[in-house]
Amino acid sequence: MKNIVIVGGGAGGLELATKLGNTLGKRKHAKIHLVDASNTHLWKPLLHEVATGSLDSGIDELSYRAQAHNHFFHFHLGRMENLERDTKEIVLSAMTDENHKQVLPERRLSYDTLVMAVGSQTNDFGTPGAKEFCSFLDGRAQADIFHKKLLNTYLKANNTASKKGNFTLNIAIVGAGATGVELAAELHNTASELAAYGLDQLKKDQLTVTIIEAGTRILPALPERISAAAHRELGKLGIEVKTQTFVQEITEDGFKTKDGSFIPAELKIWAAGVKAPDWMKDLGGLECNRVNQLVVKPSLQTSLDDNIFAIGDCSFMLQADGKPVPPRAQAAHQQAAHVYKNIVRQTANKAPLDYIYKDMGSLVNLSRYSTVGSLMGNLSSGSMMVEGRIARLVYVSLYRLHQVALHGYFKTILMTLSGRINKIIRPRLKLH
């Protein structure tokens, strides 16, 4: 029986494993395997909400093993460390527990078709001090760590503010992409919520949130009118935006910039730049670009091996206009659906179809304050800008569509109702 192995349980990888499991796996036409280094899945666009406490990851996370059981695929907990194309095997590194005792030995998994869907991580460009002093939000574990750091920092600042009237808590974010902008708005909301829960010695004017961007505007990947609308909303919240500011070095106290200025910050977050994981560089002799992404053909098969596909942020494909497919959740969702079709065609000895990216628009959620964006970004006549409640409704629906792909409509409706109930009976913010 054919082995189809998917490495990476992000949005695209998990949706693909679920769809293949429900069809080829259920009918015993193939064995479907999903590999991930974590036990649970959380939709990556929600990580900034986990980091600030607006979302409890323990409630919204999904168990890979439970999903595998319900949808006819096999889950393997482990981290891929090598690819051996001559024997068509991937190598999973040994796993150890918190006491450094081995839980699982090194393992090998054979494949007939391999799909790489490991996503991306933040690129600090080798900036001195970034790894030592900045927080990153590449996964649920990092978001949980930042949440604890945020609570401890705020608790300390609240105590200091009760003794010093002129005290200021400075938080700075490098990168004005969607993650940086949404995180800044959520941090502002978190400050208001913490004050409501008793940490009210630190007043609003004693909290400074700063976004540092090397480019000329925030949200550089989105249309200029969306960028301008988001900038205005951030200004209303009192969030400072510093564009054309290059970070040269990070210290324990803040950021040194190229022009010689210094931006103080007790909490420092790096949210600029995207690259595929470093271990993917020259993986199995496959072609990759300078940020470790696997180069794929329009069929989403890798340029040097038709038995290996790559989707999502870890893949690099040039469109007809010469621009690469952007690293967005909607691209991973589309590519997962397309690779599913091509794998089915491959099993029937049919030629693969070419993938064409459809830009459905972009939305940026500024916490409970506003949502801005555009819809139907692929239309030649232009996109339709949306803002406020309509934009928020569309933004939420993107997550619901992801849930539908994983659970179906009925279960997604129940999960939506459960979420509404939780908002009533649980605190508005995760406080631990």
Could you please describe the fold and organization of this structure?
The chain has about 425 residues and is α/β, with parallel strands linked by helices. The chain folds into three domains: about 1-120 and about 275-345, FAD/NAD(P)-binding domain (3-Layer(bba) Sandwich); about 135-270, FAD/NAD(P)-binding domain (3-Layer(bba) Sandwich), CATH 3.50.50; about 360-425, no CATH class. Helices cover about 35% and strands about 25% of the residues. It has eleven helices and 27 strands. It has helices at about 10-25, 45-50, 55-60, 65-70, 130-135, 140-160, 180-195, 225-235, 330-345, 390-405, 410-425; strands at about 1-5, 30-35, 40, 60-65, 75, 80-85, 90, 95, 100-105, 105-110, 115, 120, 170-175, 205-210, 240, 245-250, 255, 260-265, 265-270, 275, 295, 300, 305-310, 315, 360-365, 370-375, 385. The protein has a six-stranded mixed β-sheet with strand order 5-2-1-11-23-22. A four-stranded parallel β-sheet has the order 15-14-13-19. Strands 6-7-10 form a three-stranded antiparallel β-sheet, with no helix packed on it. A hairpin with a 2-residue loop joins strand 22 (about 300) and strand 23. Helix 1 (about 10-25) packs parallel to helix 9 (about 330-345) and helix 10 crosses helix 11. It is globular and about 70 Å long. Mean pLDDT is about 90; it is low at about 380.
